[in-house]
Every structure is written in C-alpha cells, then in structure tokens.
Design a protein that fits this description.
The complex is a heterodimer of chains A (355) and B (59).
Chain A lengths: L2 H10 L28 E4 L2 E5 L5 E6 L9 E6 L11 E8 H4 L12 E9 L3 E8 L6 E8 L6 E7 L13 E8 L14 E2 L19 E11 L11 H8 L3 E4 L9 E7 L4 E7 L8 E4 L6 E4 L3 E3 L5 E2 L7 E7 L8 E6 L6 E4 L3
Antiparallel strand pairs in A: 1-2, 2-5, 3-4, 4-12, 5-10, 6-9, 6-12, 7-8, 7-10, 8-11, 13-22, 14-15, 14-21, 15-20, 16-22, 17-18, 17-21, 19-20
Chain B lengths: L2 E8 L7 E7 L4 E4 L6 H11 L10
Antiparallel strand pairs in B: 1-2, 2-3
Classes of the chains: A mainly beta (355), B alpha+beta (59).
C-alpha cells in the first residue's frame, strides 16, 4: 500500500481519529472521590448529579456495562417521589469553554454536534437530553426512548450548531450536557428540537423516573462530537482519562494500606504553623482544598509527630498550579523540614476546580 | 449547596488577605480561595447576595 493510500485509510478509519469526544470520563472509569452519593454530588468524575427531590437515591460507579465497557454510572432510587415545584433531577457534565471553542457556537458557521451514549433503565419511556450555554439562555432539548426495561440501548442525537447566543470559550462552562430523570412540574419545559431561551432540561414528555421506588438508571459511553454522525466511542487510556479529570478534581489518598501516608512536604513556618507548596498541572481555576474535616486525621512529622489543631487550609497566595497550604500545629521548632501525613486509612486531601 | 458555616481565615503573612473556611453538612471542611471562577466561591457569593448566608469573621 502506498503512503497516500495508507494516509487515506487512516483518515477514513473513524477509530483512528483521536480527540473527538468533548466529554471527559464518558466511560465512567475514573472515580477519584470513591464511594457513593445520596445527595447532589459526583458519583464518578466529571458527571454531577443534581437531585433535589424528596426521593432517596444512590449514585455510584457500577461494573454493569455493555460490551466494550467496564463501568457505568448507576442511579438507584430508594423510596421514589416525584419532583415538585422547581426541583431538578439531572445527570450532567459541564464541558469547559476552552474545549468547545472549535464548534464556533454563537456565530454563523456553528457546527452540529452528535451525542451518543449507552443507557439502561428499569423504567421505560421518553427521556430528555439537552445542551445549554453557561447563562442557560440557549437551550436545545432532544427526546429519546428507552424501549425495553433492564436492557442496554444505544442512542444517538444530533444537535444543530447554535449561531446566536453567548457561548463561553474560556475556563467557564462552554456546554452543559444534561440527562433529565424527572425534574419537577414547576421547572421549565421546552419544545423538542429547537433552540429555546428557557432554562429547561426536559420536554413535557419526560418520564418521571425518580418517582419509581427501586428504579435503576445506568449510563455510559457518553460521547459528544462534531458532525451529524456518531462514531464508535473514543476509548482513552486510564492514565489519559485520569489526567483530564485532574484538571477539575485531584485527590491524594486515602491509602488502603498505610495509616501514615505522606501527603505533602514542606517546613515549619514557626512554632505553630506548617507550610507546604503543592504543585501540579494547571487546574481549571484556583481550586478549593477539601479535607476530611477532622484535624486528628492529620499529623505533621518533623523530629517527631506534631499535633494538628485545625485541618489543612489554603493561604491566599495559591494559584491553579501552585497551592500554598498551611496547617496549625503545636510543639514545633521553626525552620525545620517536615511533612504532612495521615493518621488513618480514611484521611486525604483533595483539590476541587470543578465547573 | 448547603453550607453549615463560612468563616474568613486570614493570611499570617498578609493579614489583609484571606480565604474562606467552609463547613459542609457531611462534616467535610473546605478551604475556598476568593476566585470568582471557583464554583464554591461563586455559590457562596450567590447565597450572600440572596441573603441566605453570612460570612463570619475569624475568631
């Protein structure tokens, strides 16, 4: 085969093209936070749940998946309850504006995008997926049907490019991709298949999934790409996907085996304060430092353990790639090398720059 | 986002600067920079503007 033929074959091979998918962690493989959630939060990296109804639910990473995948995001309803008033029940990923700039949304020539995903639910019916801008005043809703209960189904939806409106192309929300699970009757509804200016995530046909006690909803293989044709899911290596997720959230620990896992190293600023600098790849913005909430979960070690009197905190000098971390301690000697470590197998530090 | 409390934490080196210490309902404690692009800070400011939240000064 000539070089030209090889190149033509490569271009024509959809699976050879990379960086197609705007969605990060679409295969639900990365779950840095661990565990499950029962309130608004992140059951896997990048996919957030907004669940404001009185239904009890669990959101978690599942190993139930269609062929070719190993994980999915699973929502299980405990005691079902319909959403009321302005309550929302949504799975969503906020896609950074920097990553969708090439779509040209908000101007003539805006490109169409196609969403594809695998879904499985114990509740059949009409469901809605939508894309919207950061201000939530440019919204496009499309319906899809879950036809058979407890069976994986592959769905594709093509959204037309939006030639008007303001679509951020910086580190803010470029596109909010949402899957509605039965938001309340008081939340706005919108017409299907048209650009609307109402902050809606559903049409009036949306199935009231959250009202079904014991119901399950699985989602994986989520891909949003340029064009009108859904291509095979772009599988990325675990390390590649993790690195992408870490622009928005990164976690150190907990250790499964060591009660004294080192977290960061630095020095004793004075007799009462430990100071350390944590550097990393640029996060999306200045992150929040997340701790377990218990000072006793942490210890500063420098010629012996120093008692931590308050959980680690950021100082005001932090930047997206360099964080100034301070810890109040007792019994230290100023100017000594020291490190912060855990005192059990549940303590951790995390940095949150999610959208 | 339900915050139990939000308190200023002043910098030891420059007492005119501070970050926010946030206690969540699940017991976790966050340290939030004053960055409008940070989602926690943006939500705190939204709740303050709506009269739903008061930022406490450091003790």
């Amino acid at each position: 085969m000539s070089k030209a033929a090889e190149l033509a074959a490569l271009i024509g091979s959809q699976s050879a093209l990379s960086h197609r998918n705007f969605v990060i962690n679409g295969a639900m493989t990365i779950h840095q936070r661990g565990g499950s959630i029962s309130a608004t939060g992140f059951p896997v990296d990048r996919f957030g749940i907004t669940e404001q109804t009185s239904a009890t639910f669990t959101g978690e990473q599942s190993t139930t998946a269609p062929t070719g995948f190993t994980n999915s995001l699973l929502i299980t309803i405990g005691t079902g309850a319909s959403a009321t008033s302005t309550q929302y029940a949504i799975i969503a990923e906020n896609i950074e504006g920097n990553n969708i700039a090439r779509l040209g949304f908000g101007a003539s020539g805006a490109k169409n995008v196609t969403l594809s995903f695998w879904v499985r639910s114990s509740v059949t019916g009409t469901f809605c997926a939508s894309i919207k801008n950061s201000a939530a005043n440019r919204v496009y809703i499309m319906e899809y049907t879950i036809s058979v209960a407890d069976t994986w189904e592959y769905k594709t939806l093509t959204f037309p490019g939006d030639t008007t409106g303001t679509w951020l192309t910086d580190n803010g929300i470029g596109i909010r991709l949402a899957f509605d699970l039965g938001s309340g009757s008081g939340t706005p509804t919108g017409a299907e298949n048209s650009w609307i200016t109402t902050n809606a995530t559903r049409t009036s046909n949306q199935t009231d999934f959250v009202s079904n006690s014991g119901a399950t909803f699985y989602l994986t293989g989520v891909q949003l790409e340029v064009g009108e044709q859904a291509t095979p899911f772009e599988h990325r290596s675990y390390g590649d996907e993790l690195a992408r997720c870490q622009r928005y959230y990164r976690k150190i620990g907990p250790s499964e085996t060591s009660s004294n896992m080192p977290l960061i190293s630095g020095g004793t600023y004075d007799t009462t304060q430990f100071q350390a600098t944590y550097t990393c790849e640029d996060m999306r913005t200045q992150p929040t430092l997340e701790t377990s909430g218990t000072a006793g979960d942490y210890q500063v070690y420098s010629t012996g353990g120093k008692t931590v009197t308050a959980v680690p905190a950021l100082d005001s000098n932090s930047e997206p790639a360099a964080l100034d971390i301070r810890v109040n301690i007792t019994g230290a000697t100023a100017g000594q090398y020291a490190w912060l470590r855990t005192t059990n197998t549940t303590a951790y530090l995390a940095f949150d720059a999610e959208l | 986002m339900n915050f139990v409390s939000v308190t200023k934490r002043y910098s030891q080196e420059n007492p005119s600067l501070y970050t926010l210490t946030v206690v969540l309902q699940d017991g976790k404690i966050l340290s939030v920079p004053l960055d409008p692009a940070n989602r926690h800070y943006a939500e705190i400011m939204r709740q303050v503007a709506a009269g739903e939240l008061t930022i406490q000064d450091a003790e």
